[in-house]
Amino acid sequence: MAKELQYRSDDLIHLFGKCFVKPFNTYLVKGGIEPVYLPANSSCAYHQVVFNRDYFSSALHEISHWCIAGQLRRLKIDYGYWYSTDGRSAVEQKNFEKVESKPQALEWIFAKACGRDFCISIDNLDAPPASTEKFKRTVVREAHSYKTSGLPRRALSFYRQLAEFYRYEGGIDELQFSINDL
């Protein structure tokens, strides 16, 4: 019987550090009540990608945002994006889904490199039930786009660390993405 993989956020912290502490002065930090990106400032000399409590999936998601954010966005708290909590209106939810499709697609790729399932998130639990089919299709399309066009440089570096650590032997081009998996 094969040994079951353990998914510990401390492993992600270590892998992220191997890739990004020295070249980007950025640390992955667990324990936040809410996830947030905090650029270095007068009270903290390094940038922080803070993920929710000790949740592995939250860490992968926040790393995905960081891997996509450009240099100027990484100088702003939460990359300069707005965030509305649960109970968003339909318009707010549409705007949320616009900025979330790429990071969620990248998170899915990272999850696959770990041999882990991915769950799409509309992150709007207090709102009336809504169809997620359009958002799911968009995330699938973005995942296929990353697969064919390639990952951003930082995302590729982290993907390689994950694949090596979790012993995923296939390449990105071998990953499969289907709306039925979401």
> In terms of structural class, how would the helical and strand content be classed?
mainly alpha
The H-and-E topology, N to C, reads as HEEEHHHH
For the largest beta-sheet, the strand count, sense and barrel status come to: 3 strands, mixed
Secondary structure: number of strands: 3
Average pLDDT level:
90
Number of helices: 5
Overall number of domains: 1
β-strand percent reads: 5-15%
Estimated radius of gyration: 16 Å
- The coarse overall form would be globular
Structure characterization notes:
The chain is mostly helical. It has one domain (9-181). 46% of the residues lie in helices and 9% in strands. The protein has helices at 9-24, 56-68, 90-114, 133-149, 153-165; strands at 26-32, 36-38, 47-52. The chain has a three-stranded mixed β-sheet. The longest helix is centred in the middle third of the chain and has 25 residues, at 90-114. The chain is globular, with a radius of gyration of 16 Å. The mean pLDDT is 90.
Describe, in short, the structure shown.
The protein has 182 residues and is mainly α.
Secondary structure blueprint with pairings:
Blueprint: H1 9-24, E1 26-32, E2 36-38, E3 47-52, H2 56-68, H3 90-114, H4 133-149, H5 153-165
Parallel strand pairs: 1-3
Antiparallel strand pairs: 2-3
Which short descriptors sum up this protein?
9% strand; three-stranded mixed β-sheet; mainly alpha; 182 residues; globular
